[in-house]
Amino acid sequence: DKIPLPSWAIIAIAVVAALLILTCCFCIIKKCCCKKKKNKKGKKGKGDMGMKNLKGGEKPQDEDDEEDDVEPGLTGDEKEEEVKEKEKLGKLQYSIDYDFQENKLTVGILQAADLLSMDSGGTSDPYVRVYVLPDKKKKFDTKVHKKTLNPVFNETFTFKIPFQEMGGKTLVMS
């Protein structure tokens, strides 16, 4: 019937157990309810670019425009965390031209720079895959450049797309 512990020890054990249970509940609630909403741009994939935003030229990943990609409404600390999470993949220089006479979109993949090494030797075998969403029927790949992190491609690819359909298309370079 009787527990061989003093009453103050039983109370201390009960308080510690209650605190442990409350801490677990707090962590579960915080994890479920307070998740950061991920930026919707992230769903498209790396290197995606909508046809409405075309300006041509180079699409660098500069340090200056990191803060533009941060979700609005975040505090200073949360912005810093999200900027740190952004992974630098390198730079891709490309050109885009549309021929209204022939209804052709011409994409030129010029060069890449400062790519991440994917091989254990510190180099990579990079290439670029170019296609237009939502119909992934026509995919183009550049030539593979062995063991380099700064490849020069100088290749062009042509897509037949009527001008009226350009607004609903997304050009993907990955």
Automatic annotation (TrEMBL):
Residue ranges of domain C2 in the record: 88-174
Ranges of biased composition (kind: Acidic residues): 61-71
PROSITE patterns on file: C2
GO CC aspect terms: axon; dense core granule; plasma membrane; synaptic vesicle membrane
Residue ranges of the region described as Disordered: 38-87
Tree of life domain: Eukaryota
Residue ranges, compositional bias (Basic and acidic residues): 45-60
Keyword Transmembrane helix applies: yes
Chain ranges passing through the membrane: 6-29
Sample GO molecular function, one term: calcium-dependent phospholipid binding
One Pfam short name: C2
A GO BP annotation: synaptic vesicle endocytosis
Keyword Chaperone among record annotations: no
Keywords of the record: Membrane, Repeat, Transmembrane, Transmembrane helix
SMART domains to which the protein is assigned, alphabetical: C2 (SM00239)
Similarity comment: family membership: Belongs to the synaptotagmin family.
Protein name, as recorded: Synaptotagmin IIa
Organism: Nothobranchius kuhntae
